[in-house]
Specification:
This protein is an alpha/beta fold. Helices cover about 50% and strands about 15% of the residues. It binds pyridoxine-5'-phosphate.
């Protein structure tokens, strides 16, 4: 084991800039040796560099790069393999997946009854930005996502499409037809502004068992949206669910520190119970840029499902640029 490996093993966390610097050094070294040409020159260069670092570490630059990539969950590969020299591509891989709910893009579109903004385009942008799942909720009243959206999303989503739905005969038929990567069953009431609570899994176990079986017959995994309570999680397991999504709404709405902490404990315990039962564990509802961090640090949670906060952030993050673009368009006319 060399110095750097030992340090990392003992908990040393090199800052992110160090990773970038090392990657640049790696690229630089490759470029230098390419310029000097030939394997012999490259070997000489490697030897010279190793020699100059002998006293501090016996690592070669590519090894350091790989080590840091491993540590920071970066994938690094050189396009030299494809005869395009000196290009290193990195993409962070998070242990916890972020799935983006695009319902509110559809809400905005429907406000004018037209075609823009298209939630399908939003899904593609979200995936390009690194989202590892796309969520849409096809409601009985079609207030945001429409049948056409679900079909197109199935065609374009490259990560995982999660179709959120009430367990009604009509929507089950559509889901089986579309074959999303998985479905999330939620309670649905016409009058509600958004999904208001988790499923009463314990009370509806027989019914849900039948629905889950039907999805399984079509090879579609099922997640159940539940309040973070042991009874519902155990019932979800007994009903045959593959995953549970823990409802974080109560946590998100809590205002007093004591209530927030109580909700967090419940979510942590529920996540641990779900994992111990062999269920996939997702969480979502009401998560935003202020309250997500404590939930994101729960190791047993595999995926966060976030919609409203990201779409509202996008409005303000993009408004400045949108105004400038319109101004320059007018100026140039
Ligand atoms: N998970 C479920 C089951 C939901 O119903 C919703 C809201 O559509 C979300 C996650 C996302 O919630 P929010 O839009 O508040 O991020």
């Amino acid at each position: 084991m060399n110095v750097l490996e030992e340090a990392i093993d003992h908990g040393f966390e090199p800052p992110a800039e160090a990773v970038v610097v090392v990657l640049c050094a790696h690229i630089g070294m490759t470029r230098l040796s390419e310029q000097r040409g030939g394997k012999q020159e490259r070997d000489k260069e490697n030897k010279r560099r190793q020699g100059s670092h002998k006293n501090r570490s016996n690592l070669k630059f590519p090894e350091i790069t790989l080590l840091l990539c491993k540590k920071f969950h970066l994938v690094s590969f050189s396009f030299r393999l494809f005869k395009r020299p000196n290009f290193v591509y990195c993409r962070p891989i998070l242990a916890m997946r972020l799935a983006i709910n695009i319902d509110h893009v559809a809400t905005l579109r429907n406000a004018r009854g037209g075609e823009e903004p298209d939630p399908v385009t939003a899904a593609q942008v979200a995936e390009l930005a690194g989202a590892e799942g796309i969520v849409c909720h096809l409601r009985e009243d079609r207030r945001h996502i429409k049948d056409r959206d679900v079909k197109l999303l199935r065609e374009v989503v490259k990560t995982r499409l999660d179709l959120e739905m009430g367990a009604t005969e009509e929507i089950i038929k559509i889901a089986i037809d579309v074959v999303p990567d998985f479905v999330t069953l939620v309670p649905e009431r016409r009058q509600e502004l958004t999904t208001e609570g988790g499923l009463d899994v314990a009370g509806q176990k027989r019914f849900l068992e039948g629905v889950i079986r039907e999805f399984h017959n079509h090879k579609i995994p099922v997640s159940l949206f539940v309040d973070p309570s042991p009874a519902h999680i155990e019932a979800a397991k007994e009903a045959g669910a593959d995953m549970v999504e823990l409802h974080t709404g109560e946590y998100a709405n809590a205002r007093r520190e004591r209530d927030i902490q109580e909700c967090l404990v419940a979510i942590k315990q529920a996540a641990a119970l779900g994992k111990s039962l062999g269920l996939g564990v997702h969480a979502g509802h009401g998560l935003n840029y202020v309250n997500t961090r404590p939930v994101a640090s729960i190791a047993e949670i595999d995926e966060l499902s976030i919609g409203h906060a990201v779409i509202t952030r996008a409005v303000f993050a993009g408004l400045d640029r949108a105004v400038r673009e319109m101004l320059s368009l007018i100026k140039d006319s």
